[in-house]
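Thread amino acids onto this structure.
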């Protein structure tokens, strides 16, 4: 298929890459195989412990989400994996190659989209891709095909010859992602790839990441947007002040908690006495917010009748049941 297909920018985002017959990174279909093994990795900056004994695996065909608030250590971890910063302790193996001892081999197999876009603003998108492709040793003909293919993939085929300085923030983010893919890496590291973009551009980028995952790639994805991670990541790692708090699928992490649903009560006559509600069996935790009370409960259905009895006289009270969100889970597991 000709990479410069009929997809115009308005048709973006494309269907999955595999549907379109593109092999973007060249991953095999060996799903589930461990691509990256992080082993007790640590990084100190003077007295600051930025990353402390972090261990996890990233497998082929998954988006592994590294979640943490500002300063949690996400970028430090990515930089060590990309061999840009030297670990203070521990190691990580990329398909068996050590990030400490085999930096050349690791660099060739890793594709990084850094948190701050690393692009040359005076060059066009195509020139940026050619520049990075040459660094990785791609030959001229192969590189030209690759540039077209990647511009098409990220929906920039109509703007590929314009200087990057004329791009919107979302377009720069998509090009930043394309640059990470130019040499068909085995592991894709994406550091907050949607930071600062509007909702439409965010959705475009998330769709690109899903395409890459559907192709069977291993993707390490950092973000502090919990909602985004909930819809995208296959497994999650919560990082808090440099330490891993929990690793697993959303469902597995939920099982660590004594509650799985939230009952939200609005319109309670103030100040409502919450003591009888707190005392109910199955109510694990009660939070009071702005005109809102949130009950973290094991099974909401079991509590409807007792709540009705307690709140019976409060005719303005309204009740809504939601499943625990990833944000709730994160806040509880990190004790925030
Ligand atoms: N070059 C540096 N020198 C000293 N301290 C640093 C350096 N880089 C990061 N830190 C510190 O290490 C900790 C982790 O920072 P890091 O940038 O890895 O966090 P992050 O999770 O990527 O945050 P953000 O979400 O804001 O990007 C912070 O306390 C930060 O101040
Ligand atoms: Mg960061």
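Threaded sequence (336 positions):
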């Amino acid at each position: 298929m000709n990479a410069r297909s009929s997809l115009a920018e308005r048709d973006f985002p494309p269907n999955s890459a595999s549907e379109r017959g593109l092999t973007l990174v060249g991953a095999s279909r060996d799903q589930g195989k461990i691509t990256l093994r992080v082993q007790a990795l640590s990084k100190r900056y003077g007295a600051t412990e930025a990353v402390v004994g972090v261990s996890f695996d990233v497998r082929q065909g998954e988006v592994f989400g590294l979640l943490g608030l500002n300063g949690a250590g996400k970028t430090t971890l990515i930089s060590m994996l990309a061999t840009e910063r030297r670990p203070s302790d521990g190691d990580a193996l990329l398909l068996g190659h050590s990030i400490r001892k085999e930096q050349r081999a690791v660099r060739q197999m890793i594709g990084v989209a850094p948190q701050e876009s690393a692009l040359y603003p005076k060059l066009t998108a195509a020139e940026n891709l050619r520049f990075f492709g040459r660094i990785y040793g791609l030959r001229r003909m192969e590189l030209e095909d690759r540039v077209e293919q990647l511009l098409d993939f990220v929906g920039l085929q109509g703007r590929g010859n314009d200087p990057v300085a004329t791009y919107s923030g979302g377009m720069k983010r998509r090009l930043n992602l394309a640059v990470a893919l130019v040499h068909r890496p085995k592991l894709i590291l994406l550091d907050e790839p949607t930071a600062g973009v509007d909702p439409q551009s965010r959705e475009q980028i998330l769709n690109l990441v899903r395409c890459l995952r559907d192709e069977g790639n291993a993707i390490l994805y950092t973000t502090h947007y919990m909602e985004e991670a909930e819809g995208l990541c296959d497994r999650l790692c919560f990082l808090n002040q440099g330490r891993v708090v929990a690793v697993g699928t959303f469902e597995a992490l939920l099982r660590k908690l004594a509650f799985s649903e939230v009952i939200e009560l609005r319109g309670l006559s103030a100040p409502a006495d919450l003591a009888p509600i707190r005392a109910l069996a199955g109510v694990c935790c009660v939070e009071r917010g702005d005109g809102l009370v949130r009950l973290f409960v094991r099974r909401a259905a079991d509590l409807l009748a007792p709540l009705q009895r307690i709140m019976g006289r409060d005719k303005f009270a309204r009740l809504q049941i939601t499943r625990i969100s990833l944000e709730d889970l994160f806040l509880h597991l990190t004790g925030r």
